[in-house]
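Subject: complex prediction, re-run

Hi both,

The earlier run crashed halfway through, so I resubmitted it with identical inputs.
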Amino acid sequence: MNYKYIIIGGSAGSFQAVTSILASLPKNFKIPIFLCLHRLKHVRSGFVEALSIKSKLPIVEPIDKEHIRQGVVYLAPANYHMYFELGNYISLSTEEPVNHSRPSIDLSFVSAAYTFKDKLIGVVLSGANKDGAKGLKALKSANGLAIVQDPAECQVKTMTTAAIDETPVDHIFTTKEIIDFILNLEQ
Amino acid sequence: MVRLGIVEYRNIINSLQLLVKLDFSDYALTSLKWRFERFIQLRKIHSSEDLIHRLKKDSVFRDQFVQAISVPSTSMFRDPTAWKILLAQIEQTINKHPNYRVLFPDCHSGEELYTFLIILKEKGLLENVKIKVSSFSQLNLDGIQRGSFDLKNREANQSNYERYGGKHVFENYFGITENRSYFDKKLLENIEFTKETIFSSTSNRYNLVIYRNKLIYFNPQLHKKAIMEIHKSLLPLSYLFIGVKETLDCCSIEDKFQKQSKLENIYKRR
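This time it finished cleanly. Structure:
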């Protein structure tokens, strides 16, 4: 396997899965991870700190044009869309919300798929709207690997079932299986 | 969803260069490509060739396209603490300086402008400030001058204003007709509106440039060029206000600007 980037989208009910995933990764885990999580638009601080409590990897909210480094977790900042540019850097945007969301999971996934193609793994977690479904479809069309959290395990199933309905995904995994799969990438 | 290939994307940019004399070739690819795709989808256009054909034939359509690819601001009083800190930095100077000049380049919608006007009005400083507002889209400039905003952002504007610590009831600043709010036009008395970009502007001797969330739409080369243009348009020891997730660090500008606030992106020109 030759995956170089992981992008994770989540909304209502995803916090627990995200923190479990982050808590399980060793501090020498190299693949950069992008988190696009729905969050309050006006609250700029606190989220990184909350996610960092159990993470051994550094978590940052990127500034515009920040270079992507190995071993770092990037969290989409409040009230910005997060994109990925050729040249291995992140760009931000204040364009209109998509699916009532900024950051929008669809926009981040579409951009990541366009830029990283078959080097990308996309994971859609629990959530209450359909953001992420079209993004995961774009990721599959670009030969990325699509993983969806098992709706049976999700606090809110809307987002994961929308993703599964939109595109044939590679894996439907529990949080535990997602963690095992990611850990295996660097074995 | 419509997806443009890189050749189609470049063809559209080349057409814009020919037809409207605007150069988008060094804009950030992802956001601009998305704006093209979004327009094509919303207007049910069949292909990039079809788009280019209509850009050539139809000037109304052309203006609408140019407007659609500019990115509007999100809401009024976005990042309320940043505005508070900006005011603290400049208030004294405006008080002493009855001809304080402010430039709003690439101002495609009025949220940031009206935010600033309300801040000045509440401090009794509106008469001391002369403002120049520019956009590459005449439709945007017309819209800003109408002072009309979609009410869907009403709650966000209101709560941002309250977080900022506004003195009044926010809704007193505007009237409401159907789905839109209309701001008091008296706020606009000291403003000049010009169709230009940061790169075509010959404006200089400004005390403050407000350029929030604009650099994010440029690639690294154009980003740097924009900062150099802004530097030229500012007086020594005057201010530049950019978005909270933007930076000047990329451009080796230590000799040109100094950051004034730990938390917010307010810079002083050296």
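Chain A touches chain B at residues 41-42, 44, 61-65, 77, 79-81, 83-87, 89, 91-96, 102, 107, 110-111, 114-115, 134, 138 (CB under 8 Å).

- K.
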